[in-house]
Each structure stands twice: as C-alpha cells, then as structure tokens.
Amino acid sequence: MKDKLIGVLAGLCAGGLAVQAAAEEIKVGLLLPYSGVYAALGNDIEAGFRLGLQTFAPETQASFAIVTEDTEVKPPVGLAKARKLVLDDQVDVIAGVVSSGVLGAIRDFVHGSGVPLIVANAGNDEATGEQCSPYITRMSFSNRQVNRPMGDWLHAQGVQKVFTIAPDYAAGRQMIGGFVEGFAAAGGDVVGQEYTPFQKTQDFGPYLAKAKASGADAVYAFYAGGEAISFVKQYDSFGLKAAMPLYGAGFLTSPLYVEAEGPAAEGVIAALHYVPTIDNPANAAFVAAYKAETGRMPSEYAVQGYDAARALVVASATGAADREGLARALAQVSFDGPRGTTAIDPATNNIVQPIYVYETVAGDGGLTQKVVAELPAEADPANGCTLSTTN
Amino acid sequence: MFRLSPLRLGTLALLLAAATGAAFASGFAGLEMLTEILILAILVIALDMVAGFGGMVSLCHGALMGAGAYAFAMAGLSLGLPVWAAMLFAVLFTGAVGWIVGAICAGSQGIYFIMVTLAFGQMGYSFVFESPIFGGDDGLAGLARPDLSALGIDLNTSRAFALYCLAALVLVVLAAAQILRSGLGRALVGIRDNERRMRALGLTVWRTKAHLFGLSGMIAGVAGVLAAQHVMYISPGLLAWTVSGEALVVVILGGLGTFVGPIVGAVAFVVLRHEVSAITPYWHLVVGLILIAVVMSRANGIFGFVEDRLSRMSARRAARAAAPRGEPHDA
Amino acid sequence: MDFGFWLFQTLNALQLSMLLFLLSVGLTVIFGLMHFVNLAHGALYAVGAYVAATVAGTVGYWAGLITAPLVVAELGLLLYWLLIRRMRQSGPMAQVLVTFGLIFVLLDLTRIVWGDIALGIEVPQALAGRIEIGGVTYPVYRLFIIALGAAIFAALALVLARTQIGAMIRAGVDNDKMAACLGINVERLFLAVFCVGCGLAGLAGAVAAPILSVTPDMGLQILIPTLIVVVIGGLGSLWGAMAGSLIFGFVQTFGAVLLPGLASVLIYALLAAVLILRPAGMFPARG
C-alpha cells in the first residue's frame, strides 16, 4: 500500500518530465558546498563527477546536463537548494551532499518527492539504515563501514589497548563507534575516549596529554579537513607518534591535505575506501585522467564524484531516464572501478566496497600512500532499513 | 516619538500588496524567496524595536530566534505538545529569555552593550551546540507545520506557507506599532534620547528596557518558530552570531528606527544575496562591499534616505509657502 | 594524572594564552586609543597566516615570520586610509557593521588568492623537537610562542611606561582631545598604533601557522575568543589583555580536561559575570 502510494506520488512528480525523458537528456542537480569549510571537498567532488560523466557517457544513449547549487554547508540552505533543483529546475536526479547535516535536512524531502539522490560523501549511518529510502543511493561510504574492519585488523596487529579521539558530532561518534565495535569484538580494550568540540578545537594539547596519560598502546582518531591537519601536526609535535602510533579513519591523512601536514603524517596508518595508489587498471586510468584535468592527485572525494557519475551512466544505460526508473536502476549498479569491485547493496542502497589500510610514507614527489592491507568488502547490516521487504 | 506617517503607512500598504501579489503570482523559487524575506522581516522588526527605538544595539537576536526555533522543536518532540501549543510555548519562552537578557544588559551602554549581548548569544549557541539533547551539530529533524486542513488550507504547499508567514508578519507589524505607540514605547524612546532625564522623571529605566527586550524577544521567537516550520529542520547555525550580525546589517540597510525600513532592507538583502550568489560563489565579497558602502554613506539606509529626502522637500515647500517673498531660510 | 600532567597542561594553557595575547593586544590598544572595535582583526590574523605560509614555502620560515606582520601592517595602513579614518566619528554600531562587512570581504579575498584547500607550514629546524622541563618533554616551538608572547608584552609595557611615544599613547587613551590640545599629533598616533596592532595580528597568524592549519575561516574562529579576552580584561588596557588571555587560556585548557563539553559555556558564563559585575572589564584603561 505504502509502496503504491509512493509510486503514485513519484509518478505525479515525474509526469511533467515525460517530454524531457523522450529527448533522453538527463538533468543532474549537483548539490555541493562551494563556500564554507567544505568548499575544497565540493570542488573535488565536482571535478570527479564531471570527469566521470565525460569518461563514461559514451556507454549510454542519454546525454546529461548539469545544474550546480551551493549548500554553503548549512542544512537549511541545502534544503532550500534541493527544493529549487527539484521543483524549479525539474532535475531528474540529484548528486552530491557532503555534510551529514545537509543530508539529514533534505532526506524527507527527497524521499517524498521521489527524486533519486546519489550521495557522494555524507556518511551518516542512518541514511542507509533506519532512514533509508528507495530514492537515496550512496556511492561514497558509511561511517561504520570504513572503521569497523579496521578494529579487527588493528587488534590482529597486536594492539591491545587504544585511546580514541574524534570531534563531537554524529559522524565522529559513528566513526569511533564502528571502530570500537570491531576492536572490542576482536578482544581489544578501549582505555579512554575523548570527543572534542566540533570545529571549535584548534589546540589539541589538553586532549593529547590525556591520551598520553591513558597508558594505551595506540591512538585511534577521526578528523577531517583543517582539524585533521592541526591534529596530526600537534600529535607529532608532542612526540606521541613514537610512543603511541597513530591510527585512524583515513580522512585523517587524505591526499587532499596531506601535503599541509608534512612529515608529521609519515607513518600514520589509516583505513579508507580509496587511496590514489590502489593498484588496478581502472584506478590507473582514473588517476592519469584526473591529474591531466586538475593537476592534482585525486582524493577520496574526487573518486566519490567520479563513481557517482559512473553509477548514473550505468543506471541510464539500462534505458531508465525518468526519476522512478533511475532510482530503481541505481539500486542495481555494480562495476569494477578505481576502488575495486563496487556495488550497491539493494537491501540498504549503501555501497559495498573493499576497505584499504594504508600508511602515509615519503615518496619521490612528496608524501604518498602505501597500501598495507585490503580488507574484504562487507555490506552494512540493515539497521532498521526495510527496503528489501517493501521492494 | 513613534508615529506612522503617511509615507510609512503608504509603504507598508505597498509592501503588503506586493507580497500578496507575489504570493499568488510567483512560482516555486519566488515563493521560497518570499518566505525567506517574510521571516527575516519579522526578525528585523524585533531588532529595530530595541536597536532603533531603544538604542540597544543587540548582537543576540539571531540567538533569540534560534532559541524560539529550538523551544518550538523541543516542545513538540520531547514534551509532545500539539503544534499550536508548542508555538505559543516557544514565543513565551523566547520572550522570557529576552526579558532576562534585557534586564541584565540594561546597565551597559554603547560598545559594551553590543559585547554583552554578543556574549549571551554565543553562550546560547555553545550550549545548544554542545548539548546532545539538542542533536548537537547535526540538528533536529521532523518538525511539524500547523494543520489548517479544517480551513481547507494545506500548509505543506509553498504558497500556503508563504501566505501564512505573511499573515504572521502583518500581525507582528500591528503588534510592534501598538507597542511602540504605547506608554512603554514612548518611555523607551525617551530613554534612548536622554536616559538621565527619564530617570529623573521617576522611570525605572532597567524595567522599561527589559520589558521592551522581552517583547522584542517574543517577536524574534515568532521568527524562530516560522524558520523551524519553514525548513522543518533546525541546527545550531540558527543561533550563530553571524546571523545576528546579518540581521543588524538588514536593519541598517533599510533604515534604523524607521519601522518600515527594516522590512525594505529584508527585501533588498534577500534579493541581493540570491542574485549575487547565482553569479559567483564569492557573494560574501560583494555583499560585504555593499554593506560597507551603505554604512559609510551615512544615509540612514534605503528607507531612511527616502524619508529624509521627502521630509526635507516638504519642509522646503512649507517654508516657501509660509514666506513667499521672504528671505530664504534654513529648513 | 601526576605533577607532570598538570605542568604539561599549564604549559598548554600558557601557549594558548600567549597566542591570544598577540591578537588581543592590538585590538584592545586600538580601542583604548580610538574607541574603535575592529571585528576584522581576526581576518587580518588569517591573512598573516597565509602570507607566512606562502613566504615560508618559497624562502623559509623566518622570512615568513618577518614578512607576515609587515604585510598585514601595510594592509592596516590601507584600511585606515580607506575606511577607518572616515569612521572615527561614527557610533559603535556603524563601526561594528563596517568591520563586519570587512570580515566577509577579506574572507573571500583570501579564498580567491589562496584557494579553499588548507595549507600548512613546518616548524623551523631550529625550533623543531622537544626539550625536557620539570620532568615533561615539551615541544620547543610551543615554548617559543610562550617566550615570544612574554617578550612582546614586556616590550610593549616598557614602551608605554618609559618612552615619549608611550606617554603620548597614554595621554591619548586618557583623553584624546586634551592630548591634541597639548600638541600631540593624535591622528598620526592613531595611524601608528593601528598599524602596529594589525602587524601584531599578522605576527600571531604567522606564529600559529605551523601548529594549526591555515584555512580561510581561521580568522572567524579566533575572533570570538579574542573579543572575549579583550572584554574580560578591559577594553584599552595592555595589562587587561594579558590578564584576559591568561584567564581564557587556563579556563579553556583546564575546562577541556576537567569538564569536557562545558568548557566553552564556562567561558561565556565567566564573560557574562565579568560584564555584569565590572562592566568595563577587570583592568579598564580609564577609571
């Protein structure tokens, strides 16, 4: 019944687009931050997305038009822009969304209006858990997914006691929660946890002193962007790196800003779904094309944009061109990309992908990422998502 | 003293007509912009009451609006109050907070007043930001709009919601005019002009200031409730000091202490931001430059400028009529 | 949590305090003299950090440390001639708003010039590593910040108390009209103090760059703490800026250790209390 209702609603919304669909032009709304703290991420995702469309467009009959909107990393602005894309620009599909806050704000609207959304970053677990929607497909990662296998792996390396630290917001707590879940299941012991005020902490000194006093074997951290740079540098400057190795979610030493961290990042071991040094042909092609286009090494954000575009192409190649059809096709997407075998789990619409453990090391042209281990892909548990029963 | 001159009344009528027309004529994007303007207008009326008529330049009105939004959300989500009760609760709560802040700050002057209110605003922001019960940085979702289906109105459509906000703005304008016209409002203007004189006349200055700040807080609370209902989602960003700063900018842009000016400012600000941000991601730069130019021009905002010009013109005309052949004298 | 732990945290608090002192002293003296609150002070700090990062990347750290304050002082000069001079007679609200607009202008200009990706610079070789004091090993660079802050405080205190220009500034803070009557070129004095204040903000940016990340919004982040320091200490007072910085640094650091989650609320509560009990701050420049 509910399913039928959604179908009718989506049909009504899609009705106005029948003419466009016949022309096979798919209108894509890119909803990304171009100002505010995540502007650099937005730019990387857009560069990846455009490269992806350009590379894979020949595989489909459809052509694509892109409309971009700036979320300013503010949830209300993000929602207003999402509404504009759907109601005013009449896009067939939305891609992007960096912050979980923005995703949380637009979720109900996207679900209700039946416009497929390809999430190209925001990792909050609920979006493909209890808040999941047949219209929301995630091509980036979930917070838990990146960190849980690392708990297991770290314990296998002989680390018994860890101290965790992360910013105090949902993503920080989920990242650490995922890690602790894996680490505790493997028999490890968390001797201390610290959550620092999100985007308000510049001086980690007080917290690092606590970590040092905790008697842990290692520290496991999640930070991103400017906070990651400050954290990694201060961790090194206090001399903790030698005594307690630093591990973390791989955003800590992302290629996007690892140069700004400098030698302090050397030796940090972290888990992530993508690093530019993954050895496979698809990645080699992607890295070469991305460097030619932008002059930078691709970051995990760039690959998320690239794969989001590819997922859209693959979905449209099935013949789907309207909102409803694209949403259904996106849930079936699977391909071998730069991250290895990448597929959507139809039970949650979340991505399933291998996780790479990598060490930041000094290379010829600066810092580079040495892949230490490839942890097998694991689908997240449904966590209250009922897609598989209603679909 | 506060007076609704023909110019002010006329502008208000014109704005009301324009907003009503826009609410029926525009498409989705226009309605969203209209709603944004209406909510901002309510906030800046609240701010103009204290800053323009009371000389209390507050940098915490964004936080008051945020307090209203969170009070509304918590009343609905945690206390389980029905929507209308939650709205009433939020407005009263914000009024109480405003009264307390006003009472505490009443002794401060000039730059110190700005700083104290900034401190209170930031205190609220930090509190909301760091308290898990408010959802922290991730905010709270699932807020409800009132159900007017009994009247045959579906507030979940953009048009109905814009008209609902317009109705709220009209009520707020009427209430604000009533307050400023009352003894309390007159006393406030008296304090702004000469605090010592009012004291000598036997007025308890702090109480007048606190009452006005409380009433202004209630209006800011209305803006907060509407903002929460508009987005149906709230996050601590609502309370950030830059929101208060922007509100002050809007008041200045329109004309401080002109009652109608801030509404004009809200229209100008929202339209400007939309237009510029459509062209460049560096719209802050353009808006910042315009703001600097407006403040440095020394005119009292857009409406203040017009009002000033017109009153000078009519004064000159009156002078000419009174002394047709006399010496030119200074109006 | 032994003695070493608390010593370590004390040093952390001192380091934070000194960084804030470098920022707040300029702001507060400018206010004392000119009754002008410059909300764009934090944006100048960000510009200083970016200039330092750029120069350090090409020439070297020390060149950056020297260039940054000079460039930012020049920028101050420019701002003074373009804006501040004309705003002197305006009320506090107009000043607050002009500098509020300036924040956005400078923020976007740094984004246009340096991009959105965060930058970072290395601690210079001479100050790298750690030394042992009182049983704890502490980074040399952080001790350098503490020493630099203390040295600048001492130098400023000396200049204010013992030199002619210091006497002129004190006269200006006390009563600028009277000072002008006594033949002091107040306008030139304002300009000099404004440029030095801006230069110190640039210096703070350059000093902070190696331990923090250099991002466009770093100025916005530091502004509120700086204002709190200035208001707690008392607008216009050198000693107040030092006292305010120490109070902020210690409350923030020990709050983070002992009452995590309440540290920043604690600071705002303290600020409100100071403003209610002593509206002019703890060490106001004038009685």
Automatic annotation (TrEMBL), chain A:
This is Amino acid/amide ABC transporter substrate-binding protein (HAAT family). CDD domains: PBP1_RPA0668_benzoate-like. The keyword DNA-binding does not apply. Belongs to the leucine-binding protein family. The lineage of its organism: Bacteria, Pseudomonadati, Pseudomonadota, Alphaproteobacteria, Rhodobacterales. Residues 25-361 form the Leucine-binding protein domain. Gene3D superfamilies: 3.40.50.2300. Keywords: Amino-acid transport, Signal, Transport. It comes from Rhodovulum euryhalinum.
From TrEMBL, chain B:
Pfam families: BPD_transp_2. The chain crosses the membrane at residues 35-57, 69-93, 99-120, 161-180, 212-235, 247-270, 282-306. Its main location: membrane. It comes from Rhodovulum euryhalinum. PANTHER family: ABC TRANSPORTER ATP-BINDING PROTEIN, HIGH-AFFINITY BRANCHED-CHAIN AMINO ACID TRANSPORT SYSTEM PERMEASE. Keywords: Cell membrane, Membrane, Signal, Transmembrane, Transmembrane helix. It is found in: Cell membrane. It is a multi-pass membrane protein. This is Amino acid/amide ABC transporter membrane protein 2 (HAAT family).
TrEMBL record, chain C:
One of its GO terms (biological process) is amino acid transport. GO terms for cellular component: plasma membrane. InterPro entries: ABC_transp_permease, BCAA_transport_permease. The chain crosses the membrane at residues 12-36, 43-62, 68-84, 96-114, 140-161, 189-212, 218-242, 254-277. It is found in: Cell membrane. The keyword Transmembrane applies. It is a multi-pass membrane protein. CDD domains: TM_PBP1_LivH_like. It holds the Pfam family BPD_transp_2. Keywords: Amino-acid transport, Cell membrane, Membrane, Transmembrane, Transmembrane helix, Transport. GO terms for molecular function: transmembrane transporter activity. Belongs to the binding-protein-dependent transport system permease family. LivHM subfamily. This is Amino acid/amide ABC transporter membrane protein 1 (HAAT family). It comes from Rhodovulum euryhalinum.
